[in-house]
């Protein structure tokens, strides 16, 4: 620093520990690089104030400086030098009856900066104090199957890095995963990567909250007479019982086959019956329908 630390902080040599601490806080708030980005003059003033407090805020260093044993940069003074560079000898404020150095116990520069600017980002860009890298955020689409069963995938960041990500079993749409140490680099270590999971649209299943819905094609004979039919689920095909006399729009519920709820459980799966006519049209079915319409007419549109 090569100057008077008391002068750098703007305090007298009889200043109390609290006065020295307050003086540094005031200067740090005014000249901190985060408050004055790109201002070299303020950055230099912040560094000098920090160096001064590093000396005067340490009980032993302050005692030795006041006694003329070390200089303003903390270097040992040559033997035979009588007195402090600033006129303070052993009988000055640091000597008997003077300043009580015990008042400075447990004073920490990084602690003060943490109180002022937040614990993680104390002194970005100046002063040589620890600074954790910033967090980075990304959005990653995952399949329905990976959300339910878990899986692995790879994600790329704008800085060119790629990392392998483990998707937890039971992941939910909008869930944010924190990957420790995968963020931007910093002097005291990298930040984290925050990955938001987004559920990719599925070609078969539609989302309704935690419930999954899909259309189950059913033939006319199976709808009229009832049948056992195979149906897809996220966990693999199952056999469903279509009740006799089923209509389009009726739903068959499969409990616990839907989306993860985020509480260890799963929603339900609804199979909505869709009656399908044969393609191309069957002449025999058309003749049957003509006879039925003529002899047994009914209108479902009039049903309540």
Key traits:
alpha+beta, HSP40/DNAj peptide-binding domain, 3 domains, four-stranded mixed beta sheet, three-stranded mixed beta sheet, 8 helices, 11 strands, 21% strand
What is the gist of this entry?
With 304 residues, this protein is of the alpha+beta class. Helices cover 26% and strands 21% of the residues. The longest helix is centred in the first third of the chain and has 17 residues, at 40-56.
Structural account:
This protein has 304 residues and is α+β, with helices and mostly antiparallel strands. The protein folds into 3 domains: 5-117, Orthogonal Bundle (Helix Hairpins); 136-199, Sandwich (HSP40/DNAj peptide-binding domain), CATH 2.60.260.20; 206-302, Urease metallochaperone UreE, N-terminal domain (HSP40/DNAj peptide-binding domain), CATH 2.60.260.20. Helices cover 26% and strands 21% of the residues. It is built from 8 helices and 11 strands. The chain has helices at 5-9, 17-31, 40-56, 59-66, 109-117, 144-149, 220-225, 283-295; strands at residues 136-142, 151-156, 162-167, 176-179, 193-199, 206-208, 211-219, 227-231, 238-242, 251-254, 269-276. The strands form 4 sheets. Strands 6-7-11-10 form a 4-stranded mixed sheet. The protein has a 3-stranded mixed sheet with strand order 1-5-4. Strands 2-3 form a two-stranded antiparallel ribbon. Strand 2 (151-156) and strand 3 (162-167) form a beta hairpin. Helix 2 (17-31) packs antiparallel against helix 3 (40-56). The longest helix is centred in the N-terminal third of the chain and has 17 residues, at 40-56. The radius of gyration is 38 Å and the shape is rod-shaped. The termini are far apart.
């Amino acid at each position: 620093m090569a100057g008077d630390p008391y002068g750098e902080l703007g305090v007298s040599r009889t200043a109390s520990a609290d006065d020295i601490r307050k003086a540094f806080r005031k200067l740090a708030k005014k000249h901190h690089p985060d408050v004055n980005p790109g201002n070299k003059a303020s950055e230099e003033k912040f560094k000098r104030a920090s160096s001064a407090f590093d000396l005067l805020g340490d009980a032993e260093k302050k005692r030795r400086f006041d006694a003329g044993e070390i200089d303003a940069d903390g270097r040992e003074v040559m033997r035979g030098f009588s007195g402090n560079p600033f006129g303070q000898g052993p009988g000055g404020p640091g000597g008997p009856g003077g300043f009580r150095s015990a008042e400075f116990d447990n004073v920490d520069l990084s602690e003060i900066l943490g109180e002022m600017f937040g614990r993680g980002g104390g002194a970005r860009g100046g002063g040589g104090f620890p600074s954790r890298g910033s967090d980075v955020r990304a959005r990653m689409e995952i399949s329905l199957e990976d959300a339910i069963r878990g899986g692995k995938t790879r994600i790329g960041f704008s800085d060119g890095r790629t990392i392998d990500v483990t998707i937890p079993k039971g992941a939910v749409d909008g869930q944010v995963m924190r990957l420790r140490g995968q963020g931007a680099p910093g002097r005291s270590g990298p930040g984290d990567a925050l990955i938001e999971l987004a559920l990719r649209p599925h070609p078969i299943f539609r989302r309704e909250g935690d419930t999954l819905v899909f259309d189950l094609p059913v033939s006319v004979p199976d709808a009229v007479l009832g049948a056992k039919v195979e149906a897809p689920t996220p966990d693999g095909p199952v056999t469903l019982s279509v009740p006799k006399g089923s209509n389009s729009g009726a739903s068959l519920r499969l409990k616990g086959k839907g989306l993860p709820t985020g509480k260890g459980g799963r929603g339900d799966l609804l199979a909505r019956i869709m009656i399908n006519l044969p393609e191309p049209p069957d002449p025999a079915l058309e003749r049957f329908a003509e006879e039925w319409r003529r002899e047994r007419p009914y209108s479902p549109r009039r049903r309540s």
